[in-house]
Structures are given as structure tokens and as C-alpha cells.
Amino acid sequence: MRFLNTRWREVRMIAWGLASPDHPILAHVIPIRRCNLSCDYCNEYDDFSKPVPLEEMFRRVDHLAALGAAIITQSGGEPLLHPELDRIIARVRLRGALAGMITNGYLLTAARIRQLNRAGLDHLQISIDNALPDEISKKSLKVLDQKLVLLAEHAEFQVNINSVLGSGVKNPEDALAVARRALQLGFTSTVGVLHDGNGQLKPLSPREQEIFEQVMALGKRSYSRFNQFQHNIARGVENQWRCRSGGRYLYICEDGLVHWCSQQRGYPGIPLLQYTKDDLRREYDTEKPCAPRCTVSCVQQVSMLDNWRAPQTLQPRPAAFSHARPLVQLTRAAGAARQK
Asked: Taking the CA of residue 336 as centre, how many other CA atoms within 13 Å lie in the half-sphere pointing to its CB?
């Protein structure tokens, strides 16, 4: 019954998203930047940050709900390090949104999974990078397999296991092993392509492309099977699409600022509690110069709902680029130079 309830809420989310573009579909919120791991390729963590106070997290969840956010996902860092995570998840559910979480899985126990059940978690994702831990990543199938078994036994929420390919992954065949284990345990399976420091495309080798297609074929239970975006990334082909980040997708850092995504932090850089429907509409209509070579699949999947409508006619506001990431700065500078 809980599974069917979640599916019904997902169908309503999609229908509402198709009917109206004036609300966020997905918001990634960072309750804590600190992580218990230090994967070499990751640029989304530190080893010292304190958790965002609970009352501040409540205000952020409430404001996202007021903006109409359909899914609010806790990310990091490692969200399980936040001592009040369950209350944050419960707040998301109380405000009517689907509650998600992205975790490295290390801190999961049977008791912790049952707590997440009671909090009302709808979706959980774990990325597993290899079969055996190495100097690049400790998120290995060998280390996490028992955690997956616990999830299969106790989780009342949906679980997706994401394997990865690309720069830094020594044995691309590991992605197949991870995907097969996920399906064996009854989870969905997806595969991602590792990006560079700006979240930009680094094409896969021919062997990696072959494995990528095999893993995608295995994931028949996942919506990602419809995702031509990732197929193009694997082949090193740029995607021509309308990125709706800042409108349909929001990334809220631990400081409470809204950013395009985890890889383009700095723009628009507006405090979430000051973010309005006008901001949503402006960023919805703003062309993103980093979009063609982007590998951030969750942003693209959200944007697919609107790829057929509303051409993007606005450019990012220059004043906001003082803290933007280098790729965006360079792209805008090049565009300005061409106009002159």
C-alpha cells in the first residue's frame, strides 16, 4: 500500500508538472556539508561543517513547499550525519512533498532504516563506485553489500542504486556487477557518468560505452531507460536542451542560497527565504551556457517535462557572476565579446 501510495503521488507530480511550469519539481537541500568519506572525484563535501540548525531547515522546507516543490531531497555531504534528519524528512512529508535522500550508505543499520520508515522517506539513492575500495572511492560493493541486504529486508521506501563510469574508475566492469546486485535485491538501477570539476562532459572510452549500454538495458524498472541525455553523454555528444535549473530544479546549499546545481554553485546565489515566483520564472527562461556539456542527469530529467515549450530567451544577469564558477564566467565573457 505504501508503494502504491508513493506511485500515485509520483503520477500526480508528473501531471502537475506538465500542467504548470510555475513551481519546482525537485529541490536538493544540503542539511550538512560534512561527509564521513573523502572520495577523490567529489567536490561536494568537507570534513568540518556543522549541521544546519533544525529550525532553519524547517523554514527552508516550508518555503520550498510554499513555492510548490514536488520533491525535496536531502543530500550532502552525508545527510545521515545530521542529528535531526528524521524530523526534517517528516517535515517534508507534512508539507505534502515527496521526501528523498542521497547517501553513501555507510551509516545505515537495521534500526536506522526503520527510523527512516517512520519518518516517511519515499526514495533513497546510493551510488556505488566500484567492486572493491581503492584510493579514488571507498563506496564499494564489497563494503556496502551488507547495507544493501539490510535495505532489502527493512526498507519500506524505494531504493535506487546508481553505479558510475568515467574518469577515475579503474574497472568499468564493476558497474555491471553493481547493477546486477541491485536488481537481484529488488532495487532499481541507474548508471551515471563522472564529470569534471565543473560538472562537464568527459566522454567514455569504447569499452565504457559498451558497459554503459548494458547497464542501461538492465535498468528496465527505472525511468532512466527513457533518458537519451545519458546515452549522448556516454558517446561524448553534446545535448541540445533547455536547462530549467533555478526554476524547475533548485539546489540549496548549507548557507541557504539557491544555485543552478551542485556543479555551478554561485548563481543566482539568492537566499532561499527571499526566492520568489518571479525568480523561478526568470531562471526558467534563462539560457544556461553550461547546458550542452552538462552531465548532471537529475537536472536534465526534471527539465524534460518542459523541453517542448517556452524557449529560453534570457541571459544570466551579469551582476550575479562575481561568485560563479569559472566555466560560466568564461562562457558569458565569450558571448559578450562576440556581441561586441
From this structure: 10
Q: Give CA–CA dist 25/124, Å, rounded.
A: 17
Q: How far is CA 292 from the centre of its chain?
A: 18
CB under 8 A, 24+ apart: contacts of 34-37: 34/76, 34/77, 34/78, 34/81, 35/76, 35/77, 35/78, 35/81, 35/104, 36/78, 36/81, 36/104, 36/106, 36/107, 37/78, 37/104, 37/106, 37/137, 37/138, 37/139
CA–CA separation, 280 vs 278, rounded Å?
5
**Rounded to whole angstroms, what are the CA distances from 131 to 43, 127, 128, 235?**
22, 12, 8, 24
* Region at 266 (left for phi over 0; alpha for psi -120 to 50; beta for the rest): left
pLDDT at 32: 97
Do 168 and 136 meet the contact criterion of CB atoms below 8 Å apart? yes
- Residues linked to residue 127 through DSSP beta bridges, in sequence order: 162
Q: Give the whole-angstrom CA distance, residue 55 versus residue 43.
A: 27
Q: Are strands 71-74 and 257-259 parallel, antiparallel or unpaired?
A: unpaired
Give the 3-state secondary structure of residue 253. coil
pTM score = 0.89
Instruction: For residue 52, report the phi and psi dihedrals to the nearest 5 degrees.
Output: -65, 135
> Distance (Å, rounded) from C-alpha 122 to C-alpha 13?
13
Residue located via cell numbers 544570466:
316
Alpha-carbon distance of 324 to 269, in angstroms, equals 9
> How many whole angstroms separate alpha carbon 79 and alpha carbon 310?
35
> Could you tell me the strand order of the sheet in which 26-29 lies?
188-193, 158-165, 123-128, 98-103, 71-74, 26-29, 249-252, 257-259, 268-271
Report which DSSP code applies to 78: -
First to last CA, the chain: 61
Beta bridge partners of 124: 101, 159
261-314 residue pLDDT tens: 998 899 999 999 999 999 999 999 999 999 998 888 889 889 988 998 989 999
Residue 323: Cβ within 10 Å count: 12
- List the beta bridge partners of residue 252: 29, 258
Contact 191, 225 (CB under 8 A): no
